[in-house]
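Lab notebook, page 48
Experiment: co-folding of the full assembly
Goal: obtain a model of how the components sit together before planning crosslinking
Operator: M.T.
Materials (sequences as entered):
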Amino acid sequence: MSVNRFDRLPVFLDIATEAALAGGAVLKSYWGKLDGVEEKGRSGDLVTAADKAAEARVLEVLRRHVPEHGILAEESGNLGRQASPFLWAIDPLDGTTNYAHQYPVFAVSVGLLIEGKPAVGVVYNPATDELFRAAKGLGATRNRVSMRVSTTDSLARSLLVTGFAYDRRETDDNNYAEFCYLTHLTQGVRRSGSASVDLAHVACGCLDGYWERGLSPWDIAAGIVLVEEAGGRVTAYDGSPLEVTSGRLLATNGKIHRETSDRLLEVRPLASLPGVGHLSERSPV
Ligand code: IPD
Ligand code: CA
Ligand code: CA
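Observation: model returned without errors.
Model output:
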């Protein structure tokens, strides 16, 4: 007898919650007590004892409940049964740079992909004690209260967020031009330093949209489910269906999606922009 792969979503959502809270407890215990910080290879890409200990706790929870599933964890890589249709994408500390500096914006992100599509997402922010949860078809909550995306319906009235990947010094495709352009066309563009918190903030409506490149599935798997289940849209920059492994996404409240996508696609390299004078031709102010 074949069991529908989506039947157990409420159970998987509780497992993801247990894992995220367990990882979050570890992050709280290391807060302000780090002995040292290592670089993973690329300049600025940090890892700490807290990342590793939090990941170990998350993995322990997953292995106890779902030993037959696959896992993709930021610090440990591929684990478990990779042939399984179920793949957990784990970021035990999303916002390591913030954490290492004691800037309190970071989260544990636990996502479950079923047949390659994000189906369950939990993002836990230990600094604010906010628990964001969602599963396909079951809605999205913040601290167990239903949450919805914002109702802002124009880019000119929007507040967006973005980020810059660790390869930003090595590529011209580093999101600087997009950041300048959209800063000009909106009420502001923030950079929090935690992709999963950014997606959670779009989902709960305090931000209207988020875009970024250079992301990994563990950064975004959980947050995608939060935004979609809160009524928002998540796609590639051009509005086409998102490939989670593409590393690039646009997430909005839905109402500003088309406009944000159009503006992102017309961005030209920073060096070719003749300065603020050119940008101000489009400026709403
Ligand atoms: C990073 C954060 C950041 C984003 C980077 C990510 P990490 O994750 O999510 O906001 O801009 O691209 O790599 O390294 O703190 O887990
Ligand atoms: Ca991350
Ligand atoms: Ca991380």
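Interpretation: DSSP finds eight helices and 15 strands in the chain.
Next step: discuss with group before ordering constructs.
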